[in-house]
Amino acid sequence: MISLWTAATGMESMKFKIEVIANNLANTNTDGFKRTEVDFSDLLYQYKRNPTTQDNPTGVSVGLGVKVAGTNIQHKQGSLKVTENQMDLAINGPGFLKFKDPISGNDVYSRNGAIKQDDQGKFVSPQGLILDPPITLSIEQQFSHVSEDGRVWVRQAGTGILNQLGQMQLSNFPNPAGLQAIGNSGYIITAASGAEIVGQPKQNGLGSLVSGSLEASNVEIVHEMVDLISTQKAFDTNSKAITVSDKMMDTANNLTR
What's this model's pTM, rounded to 2 decimal places? Predict the structure, then answer.
């Protein structure tokens, strides 16, 4: 009975979706995190009678189950939370901060703007990735804030005069959902994401920077819990189909004259 294997594909697919929902819920408080959705598609169909233009216009067929077609990262804007730490940056609108991995040299893109300073005064991510283009604060300078258009302002020690230290950039992509997640709220470019588009904040459709704030995760707990319940019910229903198929085979095997 193909219903056993068909229902099994449903259980496997629902199990995978539960794992994705669990990851979303686990990252409810992860700054810059974007929730993931699962896309499904049906498998092949077995035709017992092909459609014809005469006596059987629809044919007789049965599907062979479901498979996971892909996962889709939802780059919806998360809420902004005030931290009062002026080195924290939230992106209000489209765009990503670009960092350079000092070990591999790879570019990493992130919405997590919890900027730190390393031992040389360079602006880095919490994982030590260097902000690109790089910005370095000298010992004679005191960080002030970052304006909405990405200008970095510092005060000179002793005088307190406000000077512009550098200009931050944002990156965007034709298809942000095509970026590959690598953990730590970071992404790397792929062929599916398209070529990188670099520009100043508030220009060419890019978002603005909000100093003293961070972007929270865009996971909505109520939505995830409803999705969790419906997925669990679908898993249970598929398991019920396996139980029914087993009983039908048991009945057929025990038929006597």
Answer: 0.87
Per-residue pLDDT of 174-217, as tens digits, reads: 999 999 999 999 999 999 999 999 999 999 999 999 999 999 99
Longest dimension (CA), the chain: 105
Assess whether 67 and 109 both reside in one domain.
Answer: no
Number of domains in the chain: 2
Are 166 and 182 members of one domain?
yes
Q: Are residues 85 and 163 in the same domain?
A: yes
Residue 208: which residues within 8 A CB-CB, separation 6 or more?
91, 92, 93, 148, 149, 201, 202
CB burial of 13-46 (b: ≥16 within 10 Å; e: otherwise) equals bbebbbebbeebeebeeebbbbbbebeeeeeeee
Q: Where do we find the tokens 């978002």?
A: 207
| Domain interval for residue 133 | 80-215
Both 96 and 156 in one domain: the answer is yes
Record the tokens describing residue 230, joined without a space.
Answer: 């419906």
In angstroms, the CA 89 to CA 116 distance is 11
Among residues 147, 188, 177, 179, the alpha carbon closest in space to that of 165 is found at 147
29 lies in the same domain as 154: no
**How far is residue 213's CA from residue 113's CA, in Å, rounded to a whole number?**
8
Domain match, 169 and 57 both: no
**Cβ 78 vs Cβ 218: under 8 Å:** yes
> Both 207 and 230 in a single domain?
no
154 burial type by CB count under 10 A (0-12 exposed, 13-18 middle, 19+ buried) = buried
Residues of the chain with pLDDT under 70: 257
Of 172, 189, 36, the residue nearest 100 (C-alpha): 189
